[in-house]
Amino acid sequence: MNRYNYNRDGFFTGELPPESNKYLDNSIAKLPNILAGKFDLNNAPWAAVGFENPEELKRISQLHIVDQDFRNLITCSDLAQLVAKHLNASQIKVWGSQLYLKPPSYSDKTTVGFHRDSQHMPLFKAGSITLWIPFIDCDELNGSLKYLQRSHHWEHALPASGAHFQNILSQEHLLKEQVADDEWSNISVNLKKGQFSVHHMHTLHGSGPNYSRNWRTALAIGLLIDDYELDTHAPDYGFKKALSDDFLSPVIFQK
């Protein structure tokens, strides 16, 4: 697939290798267990938020340490090799994983405002990317991922950016006031099950509400490539220590 250029646009898309598709199907089959709190690796997620309100976006963190099928998907060597080839990377390391469950709702509570991953994970100064894998076919009706093309080249201090914005149209208006009109390009990445996207840590991205009748579920995998850099003075939420643990933060590709 690879219809977009990572360095130019801040993201690219691709097709999962056959082995990853098998692990994806196994992970989908495990969803009832995950939601019931049954974890076969005998570890609990680092966080599970949004479950108090049926209309809110739900998020479960660190799936690769709680379930073997999810771990197989997240650490799949064929997929890691494909990503490394596209980015010309010599090493890829997992730093985290998050499962997002967007329920059917006309409420803005399932909206994720345009944000940069670097805003919410300031520990990583450079070398962090996100691999995004949908569990169903995604489109604008069910809240597909949206990228602001080339936004990883924009200035980093944009007051109107942030995942907490729940009116994405209003947020777009505010962002346009801070960015030259000729630079604005909003791309809805309507990935099918069996496809994936990868985006830069400074690429602005978000998603709207899920107006469909089905849950929109997707897995976001935080990866570090080559000589990544850390801001040791920034909040690290436990991830700095985890980087030295091969189980919590495994290397999945090495030249």
Automatic annotation (TrEMBL):
Its cofactor is Fe(2+). It comes from the Bacteria. InterPro entries: Phytyl_CoA_dOase-like. GO terms for molecular function: 2-oxoglutarate-dependent dioxygenase activity; iron ion binding. This is Phytanoyl-CoA dioxygenase. It comes from Pseudoalteromonas luteoviolacea S4060-1.
